Known about the structure:
By secondary structure, the protein is α+β, with helices and mostly antiparallel strands. The protein is built from 19 helices and 22 strands. The protein has a five-stranded mixed sheet with strand order 5-6-1-7-8. Strands 11-10-12-9-15 form a five-stranded antiparallel sheet, with helices on one face. It has a five-stranded antiparallel sheet with strand order 21-20-19-18-22.
Amino acid sequence: MRREPSILHVDLDAMFAAVEQRDKVSLRGKPVIVGGVAGRGVVATASYEARAYGAHSAMPTAQARRLCPPNTAFLSPRFPAYQKTSKVVMKLLAEVSPLVEQVSIDEAYIDLAVTGHDLSLAGITELAGRLKAEIAVATGGVTGSIGAASSKLLAKIGSDLNKPDGLTIVPAGAELDILHPLPVRRLGGVGPATEQRLHRAGVRTVGQLAAVPLDDLVDWFGTAHGHGLFRLARAEDNRPVVSEREAKSVSAEETFDVDLTDNPRLNRELDLLAARVAGRLRRSGLTGRTVNIKVRHPDFTTVTRAITRDQPTDDGRLIAQLARRLLAEVDTSGGVRLLGVGVSTLADFAQDDLFTAAGEDPPVLSFPFPEEEETPSGETFPARSPNAAVPRLAEPSPAGAASPPGSSPAGAASPPRPSSAGGASPPESSSAGPPPVPPSSAFPTAGVLPAPAVSSAVPAPPSVQAADPGDPGPRASPLLEPSVILPPVPAVVPVGPSAPVADSLGASVSPAASLGSSEQAGHPGSAAASAGHPGSAAASASHPGSAVGAGRPPAQTAPSPRDSAQAAVSVGQSVPGIVPTWRPGQDVRHDDYGPGWVRGSGVGRVTVRFEGPHTPPGPVRTFFIDDPRLQPADPPDWLIPVTTTPS
DNA sequence: TCTGGGGTCCTTGAACCA
DNA sequence: TCTGTGGTTCAAGGACCC
């Protein structure tokens, strides 16, 4: 235990929501929810205005929608903007001390003991107060709360005591006075399960916990956790501030809006996840020996499987191959809600895989493996060839277009997999002989299909763009995917220039005069924003006919070609000539109106508010989603104020 | 229509080896 | 050669954090 409160814990207040309110001036003072806006999304951050209605982190978004008023903004996260803000803050912290431990994007410990700062109460108060002010200025108004104490435990508790924009200094010697009245849940490492167990024993406060014998705690929680709780309850925390931590694993996972049951689709998802993991491994210069998969069933039970190789790898194909093998061991007949792929037992180098190279471990992937690509958000997704998805929509052969296995309606059985002797086991589990190459119609994956017959410049005519009614389509990926899931849109949508468009605030917006031309093909910028982002097609898929609008082609029975294509885009496929979905909150730029952000989209339109961090609340305009003048943009720069003419 | 995504750490049991 | 023991590694699941 230190003799001075020389550890600072800095925690930015509701950071995601605060950045949104900074960059979107019209949202200041209003409830803002950032997180997954899709059906199965959860709240990542709720602004303090939203918290007043009971919304909080980790709450299902659907529940938050029920709690919050209609003017609440539900926005998808903009990680680049948060990272930019975080960097600014971390740079400030690094000027305070060379020993800074960044815990997350919005949180860090600072060790003042290695600096020459005055560690008296007055000195730390002055330092922390100045730091708070600098953070607020440098971030354009995002505030941080600071706790200072003799340990990480108390510093973190301190920063939490007076949120938002608070400063709490726990003088050395006063730790137990602060700690013991608090509920046990405030201790790091006490989650719902531990809290419940303690409550059953009548232990509700940290003070009561401190009275529990060590033997009992070990009995209840095991050696490590029991000893940990015993020490923390006595404010014994000697964990050092460490500036660098090595990653132990890299993983990617995906929760689907609709539980998946068909094996080809599951394997395809596995390949995409493996490619994402491999891309991140390579960018980090890491390799790993253990490949893990995670499968969550509809009843939320989760199973994991892992396999450890002798040699580390960062090869997406190999990771996918092993992941497929592991998945074959899991019973997925009841459906899969979530699928994950991870690599652990990391090393910072890779050796050639001699076995694979020698053909002793034949690759099971029977189609070209997707390459990774970088997205504007910095996330890596498997790249699709611009044409890759087209055959799925415009299969030249009527038979092929009619019913790929993934499209079998209502859980109809997939066609038998070639060379799958047992029927139930996919061929991936076989290790004998060359890998089977299924006919294209059996694997509606990008790479396995024949070269598309549709030009990338000219969208296929509607008659050839086969619908894919059985495609589970929409997927929830609330934190990463640019899906647009709007507040409920009426099934029957008024059309015409004045048709209302649901926006991220849950309000209706009257489209302005600047509706784009339906003849325009999609622009590359917006297509890039959606490529690889398996957003949700709920807006279109759930509302057949919703693409009908002013200046649009005649009404079509569901699913329209555009719906089908949009569904393809929404599951991460880049379709030439088809415009992607727009995420609520997304930064955009319009050729005529300048920078703005997406308030919402649906029924073939996107509504944008044109404003920035330094403008007054701006006008709202609605465009067709494929308006070529509208493009995704970088986060606005909050540091450069717009010069205004003095009145 | 409750329950995301990316992590870390711990515990337990089985397998393997000396 | 067989058996017991202890250490290590791996696999699986759970809890927790932001």
